[in-house]
Amino acid sequence: MPNNVSGNLNAPTIMLAEKAADIILGNQKAPPRPDVAVYEPENWETTQRRHERDIRIPTAQLSSGLAPIGQRQYQPLLSKLQRPELVRAQGFIGGQWVEAAGSKHFTVEGESCDGTGSCSCGEHGGRRHARCDHCSRLGSARMEEDHYPVRAKLLRQWAAAITANCEDLAIIGSVECGKPLAEAKWEVEFAVGVIEYFAHEVVRSSGFLISPSDPSQKILVTKEPVGVCGIVSPWNFPYAILGLSLGPPLAAGCTVVVKPAGETPLSMLALATLAEEVRKLTFAGSTQVGKWLMGQSSNTLKHLSLYLGGNAAFIVFEDADLEKAVDGLIKSKFSNTGQACIASNRIFVHSSVYDSFAAKVVARVERLKMGPPLEEGVQLGPLIGPSAVEKVSALVEDAVNHGAKVLLGGKTSGLGKNFYEATVLADVDETMRVSREEIFGPVVPLFVFSSEEVVARANDTAAGLAGYLYTRDVARIFRVAGELECGMVAVNSELVTHVRAPFGGIMESGIGREGSSEGLQAYQETKMVCLGGLE
């Protein structure tokens, strides 16, 4: 995955509050909880100690800092929404919408949609960071008091509110990220499924009792929340990552500080302002940034969940159903216009079916409709920005210079500066950059192979997130799936993401798992209590 998380650590943050799903969605009329102490910027530090004993903090917190949106800013977006008030431009900290403390701002471009409109977002600096940290630490104690039925109810209410506003949320995400509207709707629905799943999973989370050899003793093992969690989220799947990153810690009883990527702050994304009291950090983004965060967390031994880049191999054996393989490739490669960490990056095709498969791929890709993401029927939208277009162009140029043949596309589109044509490359080999780097764009590089030595070629990468395999041979399925060095393998399918299944990679693709019971356990500590004198 490229560096798709904003390097601006002061970018907006959003705060989740107990029984405040409407506030999360941006409802300006929703009042803060009456038991939340509100600190104004000018008096917060002086009243901090006086209110510390009485303050009641919302169940969870995310911190965000968007500056006010003017009537002329993002007007094309606001006019398309049933509830324009969902687009907010402030931070939500300690139960109150707050403006950025300083004068620094950054711009969120609307060019992903149609080149019109932009939003000025305020940077939340050290003072807001301190306030958010203070609220999150106090909120952590409050969260531990709320038993799992309360947390489960909160998550269900939040999921219902998101469902009720699915259309508007999809439009916001589509405009910011540039993905087709149908994909944005799927992403919102996926986030709802994740949140609902963990609302049920927390009820099933329990400890256990051990009977040691001494009959006068009993050992009780319980699960407790890990504490304040910091979450860093990328721009490419803001809603899906929001669900995966917030569902588990909220269910476990943790408070959460979240910072959005600077490219897509309006979609309510996720990252943390780090402080010593933060006990766990979750990050989805580039391997380079993940390594840096791991180093920064080492002095305090923070818990880490890292979901980093991929370089997925897509292997088509000679006995594969080519129609299904082509269909799976289209879905796994072109989701979000190729800007996904689990996207097929290297397509290995057996020599006996290589030409036939390539022809079928070109025929299918030619029919994909590219255009503005809100336009009906569009399947491919723009890339996230000019730098993304430059990288994809450089990778294709390098491949061609080293002998690759362009079967389709291979250049920028006339639709706009952020559009790059869907591209199919033949005769690709390991000397080319597309073999070693995550493409993050609509490019299909076709490699040829003749035996199961392809497994070694597929494993010749530091990334280990996902892999895809098409064959009818059952013995080969288990053999190759077991030999592929990655955290997830899809066989005769493009699906490697499911709310009930663990999501994550190995090697430089990350640490930990999202989804399933493992996703909940990642935000829990195990405590052993030995009870004696029970004769």
Give a nutshell description of this structure.
Keywords: Oxidoreductase. By secondary structure, this protein is α/β, with parallel strands linked by helices.
Describe the structure.
It is a single chain. The strands form six sheets. Strands 13-14-15-12-11-17-18 form a seven-stranded mixed sheet, with helices on both faces. The chain has a five-stranded mixed sheet with strand order 8-7-9-10-20, with helices on both faces. 54% of the residues are buried. α5 (148-164) runs antiparallel to α8 (238-252) and α10 (322-334) packs across α11 (354-366). It contains 16 helices and 21 strands. The protein is globular, with a radius of gyration of 24 Å. Helices cover 34% and strands 18% of the residues. It has 535 residues and is α/β, with parallel strands linked by helices. It has helices spanning 21-24, 44-52, 75-78, 126-145, 148-164, 166-177, 181-204, 238-252, 287-297, 322-334, 354-366, 386-401, 433-436, 454-458, 474-483, 516-521; strands at residues 91-93, 96-98, 105-109, 118-122, 208-210, 218-225, 229-232, 256-259, 280-284, 303-307, 312-316, 344-350, 405-408, 423-426, 443-449, 463-464, 466-470, 488-491, 506-507, 510-511, 524-531. The longest helix has 24 residues, at 181-204. The chain has two domains: 21-307, Aldehyde Dehydrogenase, Chain A, domain 1; 312-501, Aldehyde Dehydrogenase, Chain A, domain 2 (3-Layer(aba) Sandwich), CATH 3.40.309.10.
